[in-house]
Amino acid sequence: MRISELAERTGVSVPTLKFYLREGLLDKGETTAATRAEYGAEHVDRVRLISALTAVRELPLARVRDILRLIDHPADDPVLAMGAAVSALPPYVLPADAAMRESADPAGPEPADTRTREPGDPVRYPRARRAIELLGMEFDPNWPATAQLEAALLGLEQAGLPWDDARAKRYGAAMLSVAKQELKTIAAMTPQQAVSYSVLGTALYEPVLLALRRLAHRSLIDQMAPGAADAGPDAATAPSPPAG
């Protein structure tokens, strides 16, 4: 297919496709004439993947390039690939940033870079460490999500929102259940397929989890609305009678 057909099939404009080609995000087509190239199904898949990462995840192209590189040149270990994918996804937290922000004094000197601490230093990511070990998981200060969790928990603390061991256990148990279901899929894959799935699954399933959480909130709030309890436990989910 020509680039105009590729644009039609993917919903991405020709100028944008040419930009992807210039930036190396999309492989060049097979040259058939001086100013013409043919594109195949693999180009359609690639463009749709880029669109998912830029539209669904709203990732900047630099981060999209990182994820595509992980897919094109996969690591041997799915865990390492997943860690690299986490690093390419928001929230973007540099190692020890959370601890540095907490200890920073606007009126005083710059805080010491806590990245110089030994990995086993208990001062490093204390909130994340407590939550992770409470769930029986291994605390790894070099895993990107550890810094992300520390920054998130610090944000809760600074905003005065509740967080305690009981809440950590509830949230953690739910996420462990989700993770177990996801990893069952990897067991039947080849190593290269597992790496690709780890990268894309990390990038594209997270918005699904977030949306489902928000929908669950909406559903429960509807059930808590005045009159819902009086009408019975099934009132919030019962279909409305047809109009007329």
From TrEMBL:
GO molecular function per UniProt: DNA binding; DNA-binding transcription factor activity
Source organism superkingdom: Bacteria
InterPro entries reported in the protein's UniProt record: DNA-bd_dom_put_sf, MerR-type_HTH_dom, MerR_fam
Segments forming domain HTH merR-type: 1-70
Pfam family, one: MerR_1
Region entry Disordered, spans: 101-123
Residue stretches spanning the membrane: none
Keyword Cytoplasm listed: no
Sequence ranges of Basic and acidic residues compositional bias: 112-121
PANTHER family to which the protein is assigned, alphabetical: HTH-TYPE TRANSCRIPTIONAL REGULATOR ADHR, REDOX-CYCLING DRUG-SENSING TRANSCRIPTIONAL ACTIVATOR SOXR
Identification of the protein by name: MerR family transcriptional regulator
The organism of origin for this protein: Nakamurella aerolata
